[in-house]
From TrEMBL:
The lineage of its organism: Bacteria, Bacillati, Actinomycetota, Actinomycetes, Micrococcales. The chain crosses the membrane at residues 47-70, 77-99, 111-132, 153-175, 215-236. One of its GO terms (biological process) is transmembrane transport. It comes from Orlajensenia leifsoniae. This is Carbohydrate ABC transporter permease. Keywords: Cell membrane, Membrane, Transmembrane, Transmembrane helix, Transport. It is a multi-pass membrane protein.
Length: 251
């Protein structure tokens, strides 16, 4: 994908994976940036994804902790509903969600309207719950004896011990909204507010064919969209390895 985005003349043969220096250019990036603002698209994607990440982590931690550590009536029923939500495809809910958010709440052409449907993730709740269940109950009981509140226990005792789960949720959550284009496209038609994935989808459907090198321009946009995900994966991969090594050391 990177090589194709740098080719002045497309070469899809195996030899094209090692292009001649004279066939390398940045014109494809310039061409796609002239039609869609790549920087603005990245900023919009960051706002959308950042809002989803914030809600997913906060509510996932709170709900996962409650379902795993606290004892209250109906806990099993709530957990069953969390599992049930996962079998309902988002596409089935898209039309009623659009009517509720765009028409009833008036949040069309609004970042909040993009974020709300993804603000709470049942997958994150399940992941945090399973990790919290693995922690010894004596840790929480000792903190309660010392007078710590449940929020204090969650912040000071539970969260530091479920760091791998936190990183997993961030990675899984980031990829979804970062690549989401259908829901933001429904909520806003303002080009200045559309995430990069939406702008690229519009570019592919209506503009790319008219450019000098449609193949290279498409790949250039795809590279820009993929770079933040790859960087995040590389950074977090080091944290995963560190956590795995530390978990095998006693004392």
């Amino acid at each position: 994908m990177v090589v194709g985005s740098l080719q002045a003349t497309p070469d899809s043969s195996p030899a094209g994976a090692f292009p001649a220096p004279g066939n390398l250019t940045l014109d494809n990036y310039v061409a796609v940036n002239e039609r869609i603002n790549l920087l603005q698209g990245l900023v919009n994607s960051g706002i959308f994804t950042g809002g989803v990440l914030l809600g997913t982590v906060v509510f996932g931690l709170l709900a996962g902790y409650a379902l795993a550590v606290l004892s209250f009536r109906g806990r099993g029923t709530i957990f069953a509903l969390v599992l049930l939500v996962q079998v309902i495809p988002f596409q089935l809910l898209m039309i009623p969600l659009y009517v509720m958010i765009a028409r009833n709440y008036g949040l069309s052409d609004n970042y909040l309207g993009m974020i709300l449907p993804f603000f709470i993730s049942s997958v994150a709740v399940l992941i945090f719950r399973q990790y919290f269940l693995q922690l010894p109950k004596d840790l929480f009981n000792a903190a309660r004896i010392d007078g710590a509140s449940e929020l204090r226990i969650l912040w000071s005792v539970a969260i530091p011990l479920v760091r791998p789960a936190l990183l997993t949720v961030v990675l899984l959550t980031f990829i979804g909204p970062w690549n989401e284009f259908l829901w933001p496209f429904l909520i806003t038609k303002e080009a200045s507010m559309q995430p990069l994935a939406v702008s690229l989808a519009n570019y592919i459907s209506s503009i790319a064919a008219s450019t000098a090198n449609p193949f290279g321009s498409l790949l250039a946009g795809a590279v820009v969209l993929a770079v933040p995900v790859v960087v995040l994966l590389i950074i977090f991969q080091r944290q995963f390895v560190s956590n795995d090594i530390g978990s095998g050391v006693k004392g």
